[in-house]
Amino acid sequence: MPPNLSPTPPPPPLSRAATAYPSFKKKTCAPPAPICSKVGEATPNLPDQTNGFLQGSLPRRALSRRPPARGGSSFRRRLRPGAAGEAGTPLGGVSYVSTPIPDDDDAFDVGADRYLLAKAYFDCREYRRTAHVLRGQIGRKAVFLRCYALYTAGEKRKEEETVELEGSLGKSNAVNQELVALERELATHRRTGAIDSFCLYLYGIVLRDKGSEALARTVLVESVNSYPWNWSAWLELQSLCTSSDILNNLNLKNHWMKDFFLASAHLELKMHEEALKRYERLMGVFRCSDYIQAQIATVQYSMRDLDEADMIFEELLRTDPFRVDSMDVYSNLLYAKESSTALSFLAHRVFLTDKYRPESCCIIANYYSLKGQHENQFCTFKED
Question: Which terminus of the chain is less hemmed in, N or C, by CB atoms within 10 Å?
């Protein structure tokens, strides 16, 4: 058979974002280089609280921003033998501490049936019932679930009192009645050393709600140093870093999650140049991460580089058409550019996807504002 001499067809043209940012060529991007750690620490057995109820029941502010493990990138890497206690990454040969593996809860097996029953009650939002089932249990998972259930029950009652006293848009002096007891118990556990990273996370939230911000920062630093993969703890710590001096004085271990935290904190503090540099370095490792791409677009928007940000958001929507995360920022960009057609298309899309999410309400309100329908805009922001 004669050989096939037909010319090879040319490759398809790249999108605008792929031309400006080579890392946006998602379908052909090379896999990230592995992050090396001690053998056996690639996929540790995560505690039940991160796998189940915690993800679905954190405070709303903690859920407003998703953890960075999004998109095509994965934090689970193949391992090769390396120095014990260190984890080298491609970020300029930086050495990171290895991720600690939580200790097994020996007391968990004793009350496993009670814990599973309590977790079922928690998933049904019966928080007081959850705490009652776990009374007297001393396992760390049981202690965390009981304390977190009490905290959530107190927050629920506080919101009810706020609505009863001042209405849904008013303010009141309602407080979480469980804070005092929780602070006393968690402080005792911390003093005796019988506390894990998740109870430290909850203790930091309790201290913050009581106004002890300095101690709350210290406790949250202990939590993220003990277990760096709890992104909600990083976000609570970020909310307490109101200046660059506070941020620079944190005693954080050099784990690679610290890079995500510092980039996010710099963006929050409007240190846009520093944030952009960190996210671009992270993009060199997590080449297919939608989260990092969205954060870069947010930085570009904050720096008023609207065209670059527009290209990135456009590419994100092309690859993930039902995305709602960060699309409120994109709607602000389209509003600033007076792109009514694109904003109308975006508002229609999120309305069909998840119309009651806060991001969706902001997008729809921006559309109404651009069209001059201010009454509808006000009603939409009220829903948000």
Answer: N
Give the DSSP letter of residue 86.
E
Cα 72 from chain centre:
16
CB 227, CB 54: distance < 8 Å: no
Show the DSSP H helices in 138-239 as ranges: 140-166, 179-192, 197-209, 213-226, 231-239
The pLDDT > 90 percentage for the chain reads 61
Confidence band, pLDDT 50/70/90 cuts, at residue 239: very high
pLDDT band at 67, cuts 50/70/90?
very low
Q: What pLDDT band is residue 373 in, cutting at 50, 70 and 90?
A: confident
Q: Which domains does the chain have, with CATH numbers?
A: 304-384 (1.25.40.10)
Q: What is the mean pLDDT of residues 198-207?
A: 98
Q: Distance (Å, rounded) from C-alpha 72 to C-alpha 319?
A: 11
Which residue in this structure is represented by tokens 């005092």? 180
**CA 363, 368, 370, 375: dihedral to nearest 10 degrees?**
-130
Which residues have CB under 8 Å from 237's CB, separation 6+? 204, 217, 220, 221, 224, 250, 261
Task: Quote the CA–CA distance of 115 and 302 in Å, as a whole number.
Answer: 46
Say how far apart CA 381 and CA 242 lie, in whole Å. Answer: 27
Distance CA 35, CA 77 (A): 6
Confidence at residue 111, expressed as pLDDT on a 0 to 100 scale: 77
pLDDT of 213 strictly over 60:
yes
> DSSP 3-state assignment of 89?
coil
